Amino acid sequence: MKPTLLILAAGMGSRYGGIKQLDQFGPQGETIIDYSLFDAIRGGFGKVVFIVREDIKDEVEATFAPKLQGKIEYDFAIQGIQSYVPEDLGVVDRAKPWGTGHAMLCAQEHTHTPFAVINADDFYGRESFATMARFLEQNTDDTQHAMIAYELRRTLSANGTVSRGVCIVNDSGNLSSVVERTKIFEDLGNIYFEEDEILTELPAKTPVSMNFWGFKPSVFPITQSLFESYARANLTTPKAEFFIPLVVTHMIFKDLGRCRVFGSESDWFGVTYPEDKPTVQAALQVLHEAGEYPDRLWD
Fold it and tell me: Tell me, what's the pLDDT at 126?
């Protein structure tokens, strides 16, 4: 069966100041999701699941469903604050969803094949989708998962700090560890992350995760068990986030699975701040002019 693509589209866009999942960036008003869908279809994916908040589901469906009719199967999963929270914990006092790992878990009932997970607001490139689809179709080991890594220097914003999953890859090409660094920036040609007011330099070619993961369905029970423990431990911490790297790290250190790392030669770009928008628009225009994408994606 063809793999499934999960799109993490339930984010609040607090730093962007709007629903960036639906903002227009392409020459004909395309969203970044439009390009991911286009590349996923030609890369070999057979289904897409949009993971959304209840309050934006109708708008997301109205935007993308007409474009996908007859091209790929699609579905919607709701990431609610109470989703998969143990019932005995009662009503949780949170304003935002639990994070990317929780979002992935919320798509469990809609996902029955090997699958990839991506952010809604990141452009990953055609090659990355083809690489991941090929891995998910051809690798039959239920404990072998994957991720697409990008060079850190190609993933920064000129308009503020960014969060990246900093990776260490072993000699077998598998992930040894991934640590979420939330304040990465460039200064005078050097790249640093800040933690507890201490600056640490990072090499420009450090492989980082941009949340392009490939999983076998065996990841779901592991994720659910881990999230239930996480929810209990963070019930009174309303800003705690259950990231996908927490799941991957748990699998690696408990010897429950391995994660193959594929380096990408594709251009990556995304939007964290409103000031990033013109840069993304210009990059997409160049790709259209180079013939990487047709003038109109869905004609």
Answer: 93
